[in-house]
C-alpha cells in the first residue's frame, strides 16, 4: 500500500532530522476516525548506532557546559512550550484520542518538569565538610554519567518524554529518546522546540522502533542509564536486561489503584472525584482509579455513582467531550473482552459502556463508554488485571482496616486515595497503606516536580523515581573529594597510618 500524502516521521541524529532507511514502517492512526496521520519508521541497527555515537560525542563538551547555561536553555524551552500549548494539544488529541482539555493537561504537567529543570543550579548541589581533619576538607561532586536513554508509552506522549530528557540533559548528560510508535507526533514537535531552545547537536537524539530498538537500548555499552514508563511486562524485561548489562535503570510500570470511600466523606466531592479519575483519558492512565472500595454505608452510593458516569459524554477528543477513544482497535477489543469476563465471573454490571449502535460520529472510532461493575472480588480478572480502559470496579469493606488490608494484598503500589472528613482515618490510612503515592481527598496523587514520583512494589523497579530530587541522583554520579593543601614551607613528615590527625 502507498501513502502519497502521508508524512514520514523522521529520526533525530546529531541535531538533524533525517529520514530512516528502514523497510519497516508503522501507521500513526487517529483513534477517533482511523485516519492515517503519518508513518513512523522502525529504525535500523545502523541508525540506532549513529544516534548513540552522536550522543557519546556530544557528551564530552556538554558535560562541561556551565550549569547556568544549561539552565537558560530550559528557561527558553518552557516559554516555547507555553507559547505552543494549544497546537501541541491539538496534535496530541489527533494521534492519541484525549480530549483537548486533557491533552493540554498532559503538556502542562510535562511543562512543570521543564520548569524544574531550569532550576538545576539549585538541584545539582554537592556537600562540603570543612576541616574533617587538620587542614582537610571533604566534599562531593554530582557529575553527569554519560549517554542516557528513555522509552516512553502511548498514554502520555507529551508529559512522559518531558519527565525524561529535560532533567537528564539539565544534569549534563546526553540523551537518546524512543517515543511510542503509536503516537510520536507531539513528541517530535516537542523535540523541535527543544532544539529551538538551544539544545546543541547530538545532546538529544530520537530513534523510533519497537522491541528491537528497546533491546538495543538495554544492551548498548555506551548507554549508562535507562528510564522507562509502560507496561509491567515490558518494564520487567527492560529492567532485567538493562541491569544485567550494567546500566542504572528506573521503570515505572502497571498499576491497579484503589480509592477508599468512607461513609463520612463529602458524598458529592467523592463521587465526582471517582468518576473523573476512573474515566478521564478513557481510563488510560497508570494513575487512574479503577477500583473503588466503599466502606460501610458508602456502599449505598452505587446508584449515584452510576448516574454520574452515565451522564458523561463520549466522542472525538477534538470536540472536548468527557472522554475520547482508547488508543487502538486492539485496545477496544481487549477492554470489551474484559467486560465480558467480568460478567461471566459473577460481578454485577451496573453500567455497560460497550456501544452497540454507535452514531455516525463515533462509528469509526475506538470508543468504549464508562463501565461500572459492583460486587467485584479478588480473583476476578477485572480486579486482578490492569484493564487500561474506562472500567470502574466497585468492591466493599466493612471497616477501614478491612479496606487497607484489601489494598495491601494487591501486588501493585502506584497510587491510592482515601475520601474522608476524619483526620484520624486519614492518618491511619497514610501510615498503614503500603503504596508509594497517597491521596487524601485527592483522587490522582501525582506529585508536583519538586517531589518525585514514588510508585512502589510491582509498579516500580529501581530505587529512584523520575523528576524531583531523586532524579538528580539518578542522572548523576557522586564523586567524593578529600583535599589537603600545604603551605610551601610546611613539612609533616611520613605518616604510615590511615588516620588524618
In short:
The protein has 501 residues and is of the alpha/beta class. The chain is built from 16 helices and 22 strands. Helices cover 37% and strands 21% of the residues.
Q: What are the main properties of this structure?
A:
globular, Aldehyde Dehydrogenase, Chain A, domain 1, single chain, EC 1.2.1.27, Aldehyde Dehydrogenase, Chain A, domain 2, seven-stranded mixed sheet, 501 residues, 16 helices, alpha/beta, six-stranded mixed sheet
Verbal overview:
This protein has two domains: 11-253 and 468-481, Aldehyde Dehydrogenase, Chain A, domain 1 (3-Layer(aba) Sandwich); 258-440, Aldehyde Dehydrogenase, Chain A, domain 2, CATH 3.40.309. The protein contains 16 helices and 22 strands. It has helices at 45-62, 67-83, 85-96, 100-117, 120-123, 159-170, 185-197, 211-219, 232-244, 267-279, 302-310, 329-344, 381-384, 400-409, 423-432, 468-474, and strands at 11-13, 16-18, 25-29, 36-41, 128-133, 136-144, 147-151, 174-178, 204-206, 223-229, 248-252, 258-261, 291-295, 348-351, 371-374, 391-397, 412-413, 416-419, 438-440, 456-457, 460-461, 476-484. A seven-stranded mixed β-sheet has the order 14-15-16-13-12-18-19, with helices on both faces. A six-stranded mixed β-sheet has the order 9-8-7-10-11-21, sandwiched between helices. It has a three-stranded antiparallel β-sheet with strand order 5-6-22. Helix 15 links the parallel strand 18 (416-419) and strand 19 (438-440). The longest helix has 18 residues, at 45-62. One of its GO terms (molecular function) is methylmalonate-semialdehyde dehydrogenase (acylating, NAD) activity. Its EC number is 1.2.1.27. Belongs to the aldehyde dehydrogenase family.
Amino acid at each position: 500500500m502507498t501513502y502519497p500524502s502521508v508524512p514520514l516521521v523522521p529520526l533525530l541524529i546529531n541535531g538533524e532530522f533525517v529520514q530512516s532507511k528502514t523497510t519497516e514502517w508503522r501507521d500513526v492512526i487517529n483513534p477517533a476516525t482511523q485516519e492515517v496521520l503519518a508513518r513512523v519508521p522502525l529504525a535500523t541497527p545502523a541508525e540506532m548506532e549513529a544516534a548513540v555515537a552522536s550522543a557519546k560525542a556530544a557528551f564530552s563538551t556538554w558535560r562541561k557546559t556551565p550549569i547556568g547555561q544549561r539552565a537558560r536553555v530550559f528557561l527558553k524551552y518552557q516559554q516555547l512550550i507555553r507559547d505552543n500549548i494549544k497546537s501541541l494539544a491539538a496534535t496530541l488529541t489527533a494521534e492519541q484520542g484525549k480530549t483537548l482539555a486533557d491533552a493540554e493537561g498532559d503538556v502542562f504537567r510535562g511543562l512543570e518538569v521543564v520548569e524544574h529543570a531550569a532550576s538545576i543550579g539549585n538541584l545539582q548541589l554537592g556537600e562540603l565538610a570543612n576541616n574533617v581533619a587538620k587542614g582537610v576538607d571533604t566534599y562531593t561532586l554530582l557529575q553527569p554519567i554519560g549517554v542516557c536513554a528513555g522509552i516512553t508509552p502511548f498514554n502520555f506522549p507529551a508529559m512522559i518524554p518531558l519527565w525524561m530528557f529535560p532533567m537528564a540533559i539539565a544534569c549534563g548528560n546526553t540523551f537518546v529518546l524512543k517515543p511510542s510508535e503509536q503516537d510520536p507526533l507531539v513528541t517530535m514537535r516537542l523535540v523541535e522546540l527543544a532544539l529551538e531552545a538551544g539544545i546543541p547537536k547530538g545532546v538529544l537524539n530520537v530513534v523510533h522502533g519497537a522491541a528491537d530498538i528497546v533491546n538495543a537500548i538495554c544492551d548498548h555499552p555506551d548507554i549508562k542509564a535507562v528510564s522507562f514508563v509502560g507496561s509491567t511486562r515490558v518494564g520487567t524485561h527492560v529492567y532485567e536486561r538493562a541491569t544485567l548489562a550494567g546500566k542504572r535503570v528506573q521503570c515505572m510500570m502497571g498499576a491497579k489503584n484503589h480509592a477508599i470511600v468512607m461513609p463520612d466523606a463529602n458524598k458529592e466531592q467523592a463521587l465526582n472525584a471517582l468518576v473523573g479519575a476512573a474515566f478521564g483519558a478513557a481510563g488510560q492512565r497508570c494513575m487512574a482509579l479503577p477500583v473503588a472500595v466503599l466502606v460501610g454505608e458508602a456502599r449505598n452510593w452505587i446508584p449515584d455513582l452510576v448516574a454520574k458516569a452515565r451522564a458523561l459524554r463520549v466522542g472525538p477528543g477534538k470536540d472536548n467531550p468527557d472522554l475520547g477513544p482508547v488508543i487502538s482497535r486492539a485496545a477496544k477489543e481487549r477492554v470489551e473482552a474484559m467486560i465480558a469476563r467480568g460478567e461471566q465471573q459473577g460481578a454485577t454490571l451496573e453500567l455497560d459502556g460497550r456501544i452497540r449502535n454507535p452514531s455516525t460520529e463515533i462509528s469509526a472510532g475506538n470508543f468504549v463508554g464508562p463501565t461500572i461493575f459492583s460486587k467485584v472480588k479478588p480473583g476476578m480478572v477485572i480486579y486482578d488485571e490492569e484493564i487500561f480502559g474506562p472500567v470502574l470496579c466497585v468492591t466493599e469493606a466493612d471497616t477501614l482496616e478491612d479496606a487497607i488490608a484489601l489494598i495491601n494484598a494487591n501486588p501493585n503500589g502506584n497510587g491510592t486515595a482515601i475520601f474522608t472528613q476524619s483526620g484520624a482515618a486519614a492518618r491511619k490510612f497514610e501510615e498503614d497503606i503500603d503504596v508509594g503515592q497517597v491521596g487524601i481527598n485527592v483522587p490522582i496523587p501525582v506529585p508536583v516536580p519538586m517531589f518525585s514520583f514514588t510508585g512502589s512494589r510491582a509498579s516500580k523497579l529501581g530505587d529512584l523515581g523520575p523528576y524531583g530530587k531523586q532524579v538528580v541522583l539518578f542522572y548523576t554520579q557522586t564523586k567524593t573529594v578529600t583535599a589537603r593543601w600545604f603551605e610551601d614551607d610546611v613539612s609533616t613528615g611520613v605518616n604510615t597510618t590511615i588516620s588524618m590527625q
